[in-house]
Design brief:
There is one protein chain. By secondary structure, the protein is of the alpha+beta class. It has ten helices and nine strands.
């Protein structure tokens, strides 16, 4: 986290007993969060030293151990058979810079609307490492994410999003609504833009390298491996965090900070995963955001589902005004 190169202090203190390591690891995440919160522009340079065997073991205890197996065909529960040795081996490869993220195995599940949703299933080992890196990213970005964001965040859920939207309408001045569904929440993430966005906060080459390896690992479907130039496979523990980072800059931060200068009245954004609603005091602000978002989403490779994008009226007399 300081100004030193992260390689120099990559794996310090590894001879300490595991129970002492676990205590320090939790403390280190708190320190990372505190530094990120203290300075919104700081680029954290020393993160990789947190990836110790003790931290990986702690992450394992927090990991969901159900679900399909990855390309190796090994159920994630199988790691527990010789967990200490497997973690040590993974750590040695990380330390030597030899870890290579394997491609994910693509499966498709029904969405309930007649369509299928593609999932990318990582191997058990890669799932563990993704979860460990995701914990560090969460410590950083929870200091940056805005109140309007409710998806895939601790202590937040769709019910809280609906309550926030209701407050904007009932106690705020939200009378004119703009609702949209973002297509390809995971699959349309532009890798080059994501690298630029994450570089605003993360300057540790080990962590950015692991993120890059995961994005480039590819997806095995049928007899070959596809390496998409966009997207992060839904199904991996790190994907929700990366998707939130992307939309934080593309939508949340832009609406709350940059687009504010163009508004004439009060405005509120509520986003939960790939659905969002803007509530505006004046109809002209709702019309303006519709125009400007068309330009912005094109720039960042996003699109809205036409059948789920609409303007609406809020408030006690919304129906009467709509019919007049």
């Amino acid at each position: 986290m300081g100004k030193r190169g992260s390689r120099a202090g990559f794996f310090r203190g590894e001879t300490s007993p595991a129970h002492r390591g676990r205590s320090r690891r939790s403390t280190q995440l708190l320190k990372i969060a505190a530094q990120a919160k203290q300075d919104a522009k700081v680029r954290l340079t020393a993160l990789a030293h947190v990836l110790t065997p003790a931290f990986l073991l702690e992450t394992w205890r927090q990991l969901k151990r159900q679900g399909a197996s990855g390309l190796d065909g090994e159920p994630i529960e199988a790691l527990e058979t010789n967990l200490a040795e497997r973690i040590q081996d993974l750590w040695r490869r990380l330390k030597a810079g030899q870890y290579q993220a394997p491609p994910v195995r693509r499966v498709e599940i029904p969405q309930g609307n007649g369509k299928m949703r593609p999932l990318g299933i990582p191997t058990g080992e890669d799932r563990l490492l993704q979860r460990a890196v995701a914990r560090m990213l969460r410590a950083i970005y929870e200091q940056d994410f805005l109140e309007c964001s409710f998806g895939y965040r601790p202590g937040r859920n769709p019910h809280r999003a609906l309550k926030a939207l209701r407050d904007h309408i009932v106690t705020g001045k939200g009378r004119h609504g703009y609702e949209a569904d973002i297509q390809g929440y995971f699959t349309k993430i532009h890798h080059a833009w994501l690298r630029k966005m994450s570089a605003l906060r993360i300057a540790d080459p080990v962590i950015t390298g692991l993120m890059g390896k995961g994005l480039k690992a590819g997806v095995r479907a049928g007899g070959g491996v596809a390496r998409p130039q966009a997207g992060t496979p839904q199904g991996g523990p790190i994907s929700p965090c990366l998707a939130n980072v992307y939309l934080h800059y593309v939508l949340d931060w832009w609406c709350e900070k940059r687009a504010r200068r163009y508004r004439q009245g009060e405005a509120y954004l509520t986003r939960c995963v790939d659905d969002f609603v803007g509530a505006f005091q004046y109809t002209r602000d709702a019309e303006n955001v519709d125009r400007t978002l068309k330009i912005r989403r094109k720039r960042f490779g996003r699109s809205f589902a036409p059948e789920k994008t609409r303007r609406m009226l809020f408030g006690r007399f919304a129906r009467e005004r709509a019919e007049s």
